[in-house]
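Bench notes, afternoon.
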Amino acid sequence: MRIDFGEPFVGRAGKLINLAFQAIGLKREEVYIANIVKCRPPGNRNPEEDECIACMNYLRNQVILVKPEIIVLLGSVALKHILGKEYGITASRGKWVEKKGIKYMPTWHPAALLRDETKKIDFVNDLQLVLKELDNKSDSLT
């Protein structure tokens, strides 16, 4: 079994994220990307519940250190483990959720975009909402 540590979202999904960032005028270096689990599950499958639970304290510490005002939740696994099992990605994507002073934007996971190209428009639109919110925050500081 190979355990893969390293940069999140590489390969086709990573290229897709980079293109989406480029489309809205962001560079990957301008955002902080973290995964729910800290190593890739075998066969690149969705992480199992115990794998997510094992990594949550690490993720919580990352959030404490980075102090984000906005977190984009990529896909159902991230959405359910961060906001709760009652959330579904189809109903939640594109809608802001605020908890504990952080605004969350759920959107499609890049792997979903690779399977269904029609979701790319939603994905870019969701990222544009994030960019608009970031612009609003920076305008209120000046």
